[in-house]
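Here comes just one.
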Amino acid sequence: MTLFFVLFSSFVQASTQPLHVMIDPGHGGTDTGAVRGKAREAEIALKVGTYLKTLLEQDSNYQASLTRTTDKSLSLQERVELAEELKADLFLSIHANAASDRRARGVEFYFQNHLPADEETLFLAATENKVAKSNALENQNTQDPTKKNDVLSIVEDLKRTHRMVSSHKLSKKLLMAWEETNPEIKNNSNIIRQAPFYVVSRANMPSVLIELGFLTNPKEADRLINPEYQKEIAQKIYRGLQKYKDLMDKSNLASLN
């Protein structure tokens, strides 16, 4: 019982402190991500991430870090390890989407999958994860799970479940922030999805990957390279984080009463 109380207490205590958000601008360096005309995914992600960090630094409820501050290459493993090294509470990976259908548009939020992913989602995850494939065998956990201590296995499962539930809640709060200025996206069940992205599956904290929009959609691509729209996106993410922290604080207060 003591072990479970300590685990629960750590969840409560974490949310009463300033939330440390690790902002991960996707791609960078030789890995440009999706490119359509003047629109480069790596550049858009870094600009939005930088705007978001500035907003969070102005709010005492948050601490913010960036996995990269320049246009440099960074492996997926390095991004996750940095978040864990700095003991971040949340991990937000920022990307821009692409599709064969030029009509595809809109934001999408992805968190760790528990249920089988659909074919489209698997393809997207495979595309984003390809950088990590060369290190897959080297980083593979070879420990036999059947030999783990039973109590530790239970605790690990509880932590994994907590991360997944919290990631889903964070996704919903981010979506609510988007709906405030884009009411037409309400009741769209495909905006929040589960997928085996490396960064949201390997990070040991609640994690969400945000696809800001589709560079393959000409109108959306034009908006995504506009600095004012990039700042607007950062504001939406910030408002979503505020909603998430309010939810967590109220939930933990109720648990303590």
